[in-house]
Amino acid sequence: MRRANNQDAYATLPADSPERFSRRGHLFVVADGMGAHAAGELASQMAAEKISQYYLKQSPVEAMRALRSAVQDANADIHRRGQENPEFFNMGTTASSIAITPDGVIVAHVGDSRVYRVRDGKLEQLTFDHSLVWEMQASGQVHPDSSLRHAIPKNVITRSLGPSEEVVVDMEGPFPVKLGDRFLLCSDGLTGQIEDEEIGPLLDCLTPETAARALVDLANLRGGPDNTTAIIIEVTQTPSTDLRSRPTKKKDPVPWLIAFTPVFCFLAAILLYFVQNIGSSIVAVILGTIAAIVAVIQFRRLGDPADDVQTPRAHRSAPYRTCSAKPSESLVLKLGQTVDALKQASTERRWSVDWTHVDQLLQQADAAKSNNDFKTATAKRAEAIIHTMSQLRTQHRRVTDSSAG
């Protein structure tokens, strides 16, 4: 509502074949750019495009390692582009990505865009906000309920793609997939205006398409100070348990030649010593020592967890926040107040709105509410908001077009 350009970007790449799904699954990305001029817009577009490209290219690599590497490679590209042009210097973007694979859902995350899951009546946040307020809270410097926490600006980002040549990527999962699971990827234009206690029930009560529209409309009705992007994914079919077509994880071969080389060298040194060839014996000892050092390094590399995914932080583990996703009477009332405010604004500003269908939806919502059917009441009032906002958008476009003509 307040920005001339959109600094958000997204990518949705559902697998188009069983073979593609077995290799890489379905990929979804949301990015929220930062920077003056068009820098933020460019950074987010590059993140969405490059993460997708790099992830799909890395066929022989397991999905979690491939996704982390894709985000890191995208970061390097964004950083390089920022260094090449003064107008794009220090541009950055958040990037939250999920891949639904045969092994479950994996998440790669940098910044304060979020990934949520709704399951069995609960909303769970699967990502940790890389923001000043969240970092201070996690370190124990700020209590979640203290007044200081509310005084800290929410939009101060502590980690993003682009400003630095290298970036640490938070990896979560794999999370088991369950029929009926819903996932939400969104920028902070949504979470800055809508509370988790509202997001969960709307995701649970509405179809994915309707929920996405309702969430964006609510964010805009509450001021729309930032761009809002939302991707909602519903699991309608669990991954097949037939693993015959899935690639097996390749392990690095054990370097047995390197392992036995020091033994051969030291045996040769002993034999040469007994035949009085002292010079050659010393050379064999030196070579054996070098070979032993190389062997130790190689075996340590094979067992190094840093060569796989990043070591998780001891004080963090998903889900980071959980709340009920069940609709409540208070949410129904809040949505009703939103419709009332729209009607009042329409009268004051003389908007041309046909309230016939909206009133029908509100009557259905009232009937459901009187029967304590808060799920239906929530859905009908959300649909009333969507229908009203759709008319207002159409009217706004007509006024804009006529003014331009």
Report on this structure:
There is one protein chain. This protein has about 400 residues and is α+β, with helices and mostly antiparallel strands. The chain folds into three domains: about 190 residues, Phosphatase 2c, domain 1 (4-Layer Sandwich), CATH 3.60.40.10; about 50 residues, no CATH class; about 80 residues. About 50% of the residues lie in helices and about 15% in strands. The protein has 13 helices and eleven strands. Strands 1, 2, 3, 4, 5 and 8 form a six-stranded antiparallel β-sheet that branches. It has a five-stranded antiparallel β-sheet with strand order 10-9-6-7-11. A hairpin with a 2-residue loop joins strand 6 and strand 7. Helix 8 packs across helix 13 and helix 9 runs antiparallel to helix 10. The longest helix is centred in the last third of the chain and has 31 residues. The chain starts with 7 loop residues before the first strand and ends with a helix. About 5% of the residues have low confidence.
